Amino acid sequence: MYIAREATKLWRKVSAETAAELQLLLEKWQLLLAGLVFQYIHGLAARGVHYLHRPGPLLQDLGFMALPELGQEKGYLSESVFTFIFISFLLWSFHPFIYHSKRFYTVLLWRRVLAFLVASQFLRIITFYSTQLPGPNYHCREGSKLATLPPPNSALEVLLINFPRGVLFGCGDLIFSSHMIFTLVFVRTYHKYGSNRLIKLLAWLMAIIQSLLIIASRKHYTVDVVVAWYTVNLVVFFVDKKLPEMPDRTNGLSLLPVSSKDKDGWMKEELQLHKLDSRMRDEVHKLLNGNTVDPTDRRQRVQMNGKHGEDMNHAVSDATPNGT
């Protein structure tokens, strides 16, 4: 019976959160759509540079000397770590739909994340088109049929970008690593808006492991990873300063109250938040209409600063000596 009762509350919570997020989506859909469209543009640019790629001998690389080569059969390790990071962040970004203890709206969070991604990917496109390096990956080396793409038969062949094979077996888009762009943006975002310190440390550790696996898998040169580390962090830092800060929704409440005391505290907290939101909306309405202070509020402040306020405080203290 308890589970059924709380499941009904959870469904109401999900429904209310969905309605709020949909309202935000209707207001912010233009920027979200632009960010998603740029993901396709980024893939199109990576596909285009593959036509310009020319295989050659591997460049001298300190990371290749320090890290043993995993081999083509173990190249999935770096992709597995990246997939874990991507899915974990995706699921975490939607946790406000379930938990009462939340700090952000999902729509606003992804709007911010896409802004970081677009700025970093724009710099990446400029960089890898400026100079084409011989790819270190196995399918990009001399003798591989995938190292150089034949001229396209039509514009449609380029526009379709051969997803996902064209993304997995691309060449030429080296400086700097796209995998590290996503990884660092996700880790930095959780570091700011997440609440678990242990997971934050684990996330940064995963980013370091991801960097080493990319180099050991020979998917990128060490310079691709190093440039990604300082470029993405600087991009996130400066873009974050330009974007308006998201409202903090933290209220410290658990999803399911396990006792009547917790349930009473949850209901009181919800009531206080509702009153606070109503009061804030009234204040904003007054400011928009040019009314800074209500005349009745002004009279109350004068009384509180005068003798009547002091007498009232004494009367209250005498009536309730124990603060109850």
Automatic annotation (TrEMBL):
One of its GO terms (cellular component) is membrane. It is a multi-pass membrane protein. It comes from the Eukaryota. Residues 305-324 are annotated as: Disordered. The keyword Nucleotide-binding does not apply. The keyword Transmembrane helix applies. GO terms for biological process: sphingolipid metabolic process. GO terms for molecular function: transferase activity. Residues 170-238 form the Sphingomyelin synthase-like domain. It is found in: Membrane. InterPro entries: Sphingomyelin_synth-like (IPR045221), Sphingomyelin_synth-like_dom (IPR025749). Keywords: Lipid metabolism, Membrane, Sphingolipid metabolism, Transferase, Transmembrane, Transmembrane helix. The chain crosses the membrane at residues 76-97, 109-129, 166-186, 198-215, 221-239. Belongs to the sphingomyelin synthase family. PANTHER family: PHOSPHATIDYLINOSITOL:CERAMIDE INOSITOLPHOSPHOTRANSFERASE, SPHINGOMYELIN SYNTHETASE. This is Sphingomyelin synthase-like domain-containing protein. The lineage of its organism: Eukaryota, Viridiplantae, Streptophyta, Embryophyta, Tracheophyta.
